[in-house]
User: Which sequence fits this backbone?
């Protein structure tokens, strides 16, 4: 292919792929809106009294803070100049909820103009990838549910319905009671950790409340040290202690020792009513942990098999 | 009839459940309500719980029949010069009280102090013959004999722990580009948990049996006496295209009880001599420094990097090898582990409808804990000793790489696709599998076929393999541990969101995960998890909102095992177990606001039911044996509430709550302390309850 043809093909492909911002994003198409006159908060409040009043009891509405919108153009700092909005009697204003077709990028860009310093991990985050707008979770004019511990989870459950169901299981963190909230472990704006966890790793997140499990121990239980979620389901489980499975079968997934060591006792436990007295104690109560009590690791010189 | 409220009248109303005093509201106040709403509120009232229900009050403290105080505060204020204060408190009259006070000058400095109390009332039916529950030393009454008089010596105790946290912190903004956050948290966790214990009593059983048939085990009350202190200091700078954050994190854990010592309940007569001792969680310390930075690049791109280094140490003095003594090769572990994380990410929007993300991450756990050879005395019986064993400090290195592209084809239609690579190398001795590698491809298609309909389909496929699997000595050679084993994982999902009208919103979604451990003859061989959800929100009128949701989950798995009895062929499974946990959760809610401009009413119903089934199959000969009972639990909750606005700054609330919980747990049900030979249980009962709670309160708005 000649170079001219190649350039033409590339240009055609480029023009096909890159639509205009307005076409693709469906932006508010009022021409000249950005250059129109700023009207001021008092003018906005003539029709939007409730929102304007709410802002005064809101960090965004504190004019004494040079960073806040009300230290600048007030409502119009975020919504754009309002002169054309008044003339058009409705349209020609930026809706942070996208009522006039504003793209998620445009709306989020307005918030990120000020809040980018807290959002280093937002680009490339899962929520950004799902095209979530800031206003999908946050309310600006009134006290927001997502910033309040007793109502935060309701906001997350709008999309994470399966997590809501897990919190009702018999063994769960006290999320339903509002004592543990999603943001205690997760950073919904993105993080360096897996699953948007606040700390650098899964175990580090768990250790902020369960520091007794950190160790290091003399005798370590390797899957414990590697990843708590290999055995536990953090949002809720039907088994005790948020375990994925009931012992002894959970333990038998990794332990099936053989007779050469003279310590064979990880058996099949098939018959729940097995009369063999040696077997009953391996099933009920704490099951394997009736004896192997230091399941997260042992610091006892004789704790080789986590019994001390 | 017009009547002004006096403080006395308000007090009287708080103490009654009959709130029907009729008060007129000034018409002017109705107009004022909109122009100057009141955002702060203080709530004070009383409630009454109908029954003692330990589990009902597990995390709230509402475990006792009788009255309780109801208190809540949500108040804040700003002044024109940017000064503010706020107070947020919930459950102030209960064991689960929370209070946070904050204040300062927005944009310059702010401070907070916080108190949080979190109970965990797990079970109040436990009983033990041991004296000293809650301490590190458990003794038995002089005339105790487990074979003849156990029941007469069983004493009740509660399995419960309580966390109390105090937090202090501040934020300083010396200049617009800088921000310094400092936070300190002190937490204690006290109470009693349960812990297993075993004493060897010599090796028993026949040749090759291996089971310590003379061993006796007992569930003991474990003392919980933890103190954890956390410090976080974060410095942030942002200007122009760049920003960085330097963060220091400190964790100090102290266990007030280092060891648990006890008398053997199976030895008669009681001789007053301790027979066994086990270590409890050792004190530990963790310091971490993390640097994160980002810089804006051309073409709407951003480069973000993270570098963190953390050091955890543990140097708790060792106990002797056994209750009878015996010095280990060192006084303490002197354990040290370095955790290092390095991550680099590039995010770019080269075209307005195309986003690209690339990320590389490296994690390392460098365990420098000393390695020594330790004599292995089993469960405090010097006659039961095996060959010395070396400890194996766990270390690993992990590389992760992912690429993602998001392409918007048109408004409402987009495709996201990507690739992930995850490789881990473990460097401890005798590891079954030193290296594992997993490759994942994923994609998600989102479309908007109609203005009121959103659809999405997603799929993910992973494959994990690694270095040769080398079963350690003593393990079945055919066993593959599921977190190391070869695995093929498939995930698919679909979601539909429909808005037939402006007032009706319906979301339905399904997800399915399937794991195949195709090279595992013994161990976990397969796992599947289908999930269905339905969510409906309907607002028939502006003052009426209703919602309903339903989720169904099936968590299924199959594992194979080998019991090395007569006829067993090593490496060939002779039993399988199929698990099926089914969970159904349903919720319905409704709310009507502004009835006659004064009343709000609401109702919420929730029901969750879970069943856990285990089906075990003997393969040789093929038969199904006595099955395990199902694990069951069921939770039903009903909440009704109403709110009456006397006037702009005063409202009255009435609430009713009913909750019922039932559970079947074969690990506890129908088991007394001595139901199982050579095992002393705690005589616990599976909790269940049936509770009514009524509450009334006044809310003052300001």
Assistant:
């Amino acid at each position: 292919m000649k170079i001219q043809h190649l350039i033409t093909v590339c240009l055609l492909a480029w023009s096909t792929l890159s639509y205009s911002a307005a076409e693709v994003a469906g932006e508010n198409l009022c021409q000249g809106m950005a250059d129109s006159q700023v009207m001021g908060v008092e003018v906005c409040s003539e029709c939007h009294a409730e929102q304007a009043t709410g802002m005064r009891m809101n960090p965004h509405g504190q004019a004494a803070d040079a960073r806040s919108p009300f230290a600048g153009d007030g409502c119009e700092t975020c919504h754009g100049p309002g002169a054309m909005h008044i003339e058009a009697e409705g349209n020609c204003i930026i809706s942070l909820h996208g009522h006039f077709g504003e793209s998620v990028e445009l709306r989020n860009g307005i918030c990120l103009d000020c809040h980018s310093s807290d959002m280093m991990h937002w680009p490339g985050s899962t929520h950004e990838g799902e095209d979530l707008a800031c206003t999908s979770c946050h309310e600006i004019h009134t006290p927001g549910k997502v910033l309040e511990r007793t109502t935060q989870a309701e906001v997350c459950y709008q999309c994470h319905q399966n997590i809501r169901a897990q919190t009702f299981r018999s063994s769960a963190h006290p999320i339903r009671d509002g004592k543990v909230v999603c943001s205690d472990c997760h950073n919904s704006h993105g993080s360096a950790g897996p699953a948007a966890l606040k700390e650098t790793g899964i175990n580090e997140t768990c250790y902020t409340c369960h520091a007794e499990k950190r160790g290091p121990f003399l005798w370590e239980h390797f899957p414990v040290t590697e990843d708590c979620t290999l055995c536990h389901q953090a949002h809720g489980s039907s088994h005790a202690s948020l375990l994925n499975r009931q012992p002894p079968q959970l333990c038998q997934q990794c332990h099936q020792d053989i007779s050469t060591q003279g310590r064979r006792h990880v058996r099949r436990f098939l018959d729940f009513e097995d009369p063999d007295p040696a077997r009953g104690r391996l099933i009920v109560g704490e099951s394997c942990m009736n004896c192997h009590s230091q399941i997260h690791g042992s610091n006892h010189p004789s704790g080789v098999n986590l019994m001390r | 009839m017009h009547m002004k409220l006096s403080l006395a009248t308000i007090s009287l109303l708080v103490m009654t459940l009959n709130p029907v005093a009729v008060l007129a509201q000034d018409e002017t106040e109705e107009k004022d309500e909109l122009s100057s709403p009141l955002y702060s509120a203080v709530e004070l009232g009383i409630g009454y719980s109908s029954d003692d229900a330990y589990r009902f009050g597990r995390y709230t403290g509402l475990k006792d029949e009788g009255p309780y105080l109801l208190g809540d505060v949500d108040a804040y204020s700003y002044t024109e010069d940017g000064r503010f204060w706020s107070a947020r408190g919930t459950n102030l009259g209960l064991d689960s009280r929370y209070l946070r006070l904050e204040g300062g000058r927005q944009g310059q400095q702010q401070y907070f102090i916080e108190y949080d109390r979190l109970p965990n009332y797990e079970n109040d039916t436990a009983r033990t013959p041991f004296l000293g529950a809650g301490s590190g030393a458990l003794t038995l009454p002089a005339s105790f004999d487990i074979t003849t008089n156990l029941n007469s010596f069983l004493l009740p105790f509660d399995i419960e722990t309580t966390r109390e946290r105090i937090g202090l912190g501040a934020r300083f903004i010396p200049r617009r580009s800088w921000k310094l956050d400092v936070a300190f948290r002190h937490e204690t966790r006290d109470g009693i948990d349960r812990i297993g214990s075993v004493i060897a009593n010599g090796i028993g059983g026949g040749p090759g049996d291996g089971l310590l048939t003379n061993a006796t085990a007992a569930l003991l009350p474990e003392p919980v006496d933890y103190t954890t202190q956390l410090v976080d200091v974060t410095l942030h700078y942002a200007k122009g295209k760049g920003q960085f954050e330097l963060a220091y994190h400190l964790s100090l854990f102290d266990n007030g009880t280092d060891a648990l010592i006890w008398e053997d309940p199976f030895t008669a007569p009681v001789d007053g001599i301790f027979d066994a001792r086990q270590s409890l969680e050792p004190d530990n310390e963790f310091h971490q420094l993390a640097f994160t930075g980002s810089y804006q690049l051309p073409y709407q791109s951003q480069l973000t990097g993270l570098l963190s280094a953390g050091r955890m140490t543990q140097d708790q003095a060792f106990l002797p090898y056994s209750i009878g003594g015996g010095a280990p090769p060192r006084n303490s572990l002197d354990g040290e582990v370095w955790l290092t994380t390095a991550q680099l990410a590039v995010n770019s929007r080269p075209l307005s409808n195309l986003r690209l993300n690339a990320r590389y991450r490296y994690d390392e756990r460098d365990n420098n804990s000393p390695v020594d050879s330790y004599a292995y005395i089993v469960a405090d019986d010097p006659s039961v000793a095996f060959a010395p064993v070396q400890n194996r400090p766990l270390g690993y290195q992990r590389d992760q790489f992912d690429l993602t592209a998001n392409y918007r084809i048109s408004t409402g239609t987009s495709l996201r696709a990507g690739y992930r690579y995850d490789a881990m190398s473990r460097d401890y001795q005798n590891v079954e599998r030193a290296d594992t590698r997993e490759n994942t491809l994923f994609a998600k298609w989102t479309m908007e076929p109609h203005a009121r309909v959103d659809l999405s389909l997603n799929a993910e496929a992973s494959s994990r393999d690694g270095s040769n699997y080398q079963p350690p000595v003593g393990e079945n050679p055919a066993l593959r541990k599921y977190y190391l084993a070869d695995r093929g994982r498939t995930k698919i999902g679909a979601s539909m969101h429909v808005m037939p009208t402006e007032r009706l919103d319906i979301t339905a979604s399904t997800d399915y995960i399937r794991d195949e451990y195709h090279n595992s003859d013994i161990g976990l061989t397969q796992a599947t998890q289908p999930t269905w959800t339905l969510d409906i929100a309907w607002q028939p009128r502006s003052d009426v909102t209703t919602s309903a949701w339903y989720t169904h989950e099936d968590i299924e798995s199959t594992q194979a095992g080998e019991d090395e009895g007569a006829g067993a062929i090593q490496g060939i499974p002779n039993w399988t177990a199929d698990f099926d946990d089914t969970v159904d959760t349903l919720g319905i809610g409704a709310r009507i606001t502004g009835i006659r401009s004064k009343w709000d009413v609401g109702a919420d119903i929730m029901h969750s039911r879970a069943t856990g089934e285990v089906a075990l199959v003997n393969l040789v000969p093929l038969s199904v044996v006595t099955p395990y009972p199902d694990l069951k639990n069921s939770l039903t909750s009903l909440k009704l509430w109403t709110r009456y606005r006397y006037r702009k700054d005063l409202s009255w609330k009435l609430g009713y709550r009913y909750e019922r919980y039932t559970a079947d747990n074969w690990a506890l049900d129908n088991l007394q302390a001595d139901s199982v030979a050579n095992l002393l249980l705690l005589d616990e009962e599976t909790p269940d309850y049936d509770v009514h709670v009524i509450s009334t309160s006044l809310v003052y708005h300001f």
Summary: The longest strand of chain B covers residues 216-239. The first helix of chain B runs from residue 7 to 15. Chain B touches chain A through 182 residues (CB under 8 Å).
